[in-house]
Amino acid sequence: MKNDVKIMGNNYTQELKYPIKIYKIFQGTKYEIQFSKGIELKKIITGVFAVFLMLILMTISIRIGSTDTLLFILNNWLIVLVAGVAITLIVVFSLNYDYKPIHDYFKDRYTFYRTRHISFEHDIEVDESFGKPIQYEAFKRSDD
What we know:
Blueprint: H1 12-17, E1 21-25, E2 33-40, H2 41-64, H3 67-75, H4 77-94, E3 96-97, E4 100-101, H5 102-114, E5 120-121, E6 124-125
Antiparallel strand pairs: 1-2, 3-4, 5-6
Helix pairs in contact: 2-4
């Protein structure tokens, strides 16, 4: 759904697919930050996860004591954090797999692998006897 389209209550599919957005951070304080078009919550969560992952990688490289890696991180820590998170967000939210956003693709892959041994038809689980050969019994007439 485009950001400039207003939700009118006529198309419930578009309304349910509309992303959760945050328009203000630190509301009511002197550090209040406003976003005119809002930031999607899934992008904030992915960004925080990427920062956390970068900090863990930095900590591991410091603990190991690799001098080249340590010097690179200490000299470029801000670039590593900002560029790493920016590249992660761009890759995660701009690529499409099977004509789907990447998070929907991985969600569908997970659902498929979790339920691949179960057969469905019209969203109803098909019984396991469906694939077995059919056996018929001889019909006995009662009027003989």
